[in-house]
Design a protein that fits this description.
373 residues; alpha/beta; TIM Barrel; 14 helices; globular
């Protein structure tokens, strides 16, 4: 049996009206990110014993036998797909390196190597792999990850270089906008793009990344139309870091949102400098709902399933924060929640037990139906 069509999945959500924000709704998705939770199975227990009904696995680690195992546990299986961060590509294709305002390759911030978004070979490479993954595995959905410009933002003080000013990007900008840039040194041209032409430059870059999403959606529709298309998304508001969501990361959220079935913001409170303020999570979610006009109660698209931090990464997450973090991550407009990340979380079983208690208490409608066998 194939997974139920998206229209049927969302129809069930549309019929449900959620409780107030201070009383988290029963969650349609109670997920874990980071591979098969084998530590639970090795204890002779089931995923249902911990209320888990969804698992995210990196697309490079997918195996049909693992999918079958998770389905036998009643869990849905979603893949994470790296779009703009396959760093090995630039080793053989140095022309794919993002170029800074000085005309030189922009160093990878904090080791995070991005790719020039206009490189045709790289785009072909990722689209072919996206199609292969969807064709090869019976997935319930696939989530884009790292779909943004060259940057390191998963930290309290983000590193956000301006890119990409390669000849290919500059020539395409000229052709597609009609703006007559001079043929001088890159430093002179980039000064114009970051100065008087800044808004046109920012929008042009955003449009490239949105067009990538548009093509991913077409491939999904052609290859596995019943699979959900989601994204792991930067949790900033449009004013955080002086509007860096658009100006630095090249994410036009309102343009991309209609192309996705689900948006999974990543409000990693401890990692992002809010270790003592779990309420930051719900504040970011509230902004997202208002920005996109979705509240989680009427089946509006896109759905919002945040991925929240329970494992230690940078600042630790103490066990007594597990429930507060999950509670904040479950508030409107969320109708599901995912935890980051299983590999290290499994080493701290008291956290797993509290996760299980919370998830079991929030089992209920709406639900997406039983997992396909």
């Amino acid at each position: 049996m194939s997974p139920p069509p998206i229209a049927l999945l969302l129809a069930g959500l549309a019929a449900w009206s959620g409780p107030p924000a201070d009383d988290p709704a029963p969650l349609s998705i109670r997920g874990v990110y980071g591979g098969v939770p084998r530590a639970i199975l090795d204890r002779g227990e089931t995923l249902a014993d911990y209320g888990i009904n969804a698992v995210w696995i990196g697309s490079g680690g997918l195996r049909s036998e693992d999918i079958a195992l998770l389905r036998s546990q009643g869990a849905r299986v979603f893949a994470e797909f790296n779009t703009m961060h396959v760093a090995s590509f630039v080793e053989e294709h140095p022309d794919a390196l993002p170029i800074g305002p000085d005309g030189r390759p922009s160093p990878p911030p904090d080791g995070w190597q991005g790719i020039c978004p206009s490189h045709p070979g790289y785009r072909t490479f990722r689209m072919a792999e996206f199609r292969r993954v969807l064709a090869a595995f019976e997935l319930d959905g696939i989530w884009l990850d790292y779909h943004h410009a060259h940057a390191s933002w998963e930290r309290d003080v983000p590193l956000l270089p301006d890119t990409c000013f390669c000849d290919r990007c500059l020539n395409r900008f000229r052709e597609q906008t009609g703006i007559d840039l001079p043929d001088g040194p890159t430093a002179e041209v980039s000064a114009l793009l970051l100065g008087p032409h800044r808004e046109r430059w920012v929008q042009w870059r955003c449009d490239i990344f949105t067009d990538w999403v548009r093509q991913f959606r077409r491939i999904r529709d052609e290859t596995r139309p019943d699979a959900l298309l989601g994204t792991f998304h930067c949790p900033w508001t449009d004013s955080d870091f002086e509007g860096a969501l658009r100006t630095k990361l090249a994410i036009d959220l309102k343009a991309q949102a209609p192309l996705f079935d689900v948006i999974s913001p990543m409000p990693y409170h401890a990692r992002f400098g809010h270790a003592d303020d779990p309420d930051w999570i719900s504040r970011q979610l509230s902004w997202l709902g208002e920005h996109l006009g979705v509240d989680g109660s009427g089946g509006g698209r896109p759905l919002v399933w945040p991925i929240v931090q329970l494992s230690d990464w940078g600042e630790p997450v103490p066990v007594d924060q597990v429930v507060p973090v999950l509670e904040r991550g479950s508030r409107a407009p969320a109708t599901g929640v995912v935890v980051f990340a299983w590999g290290s979380l499994a080493q701290d079983w008291p956290k797993v037990e509290r996760l299980g208690t919370f998830y079991r208490e929030h089992v209920g409608k709406p639900d997406l139906g039983p997992a396909s066998p």
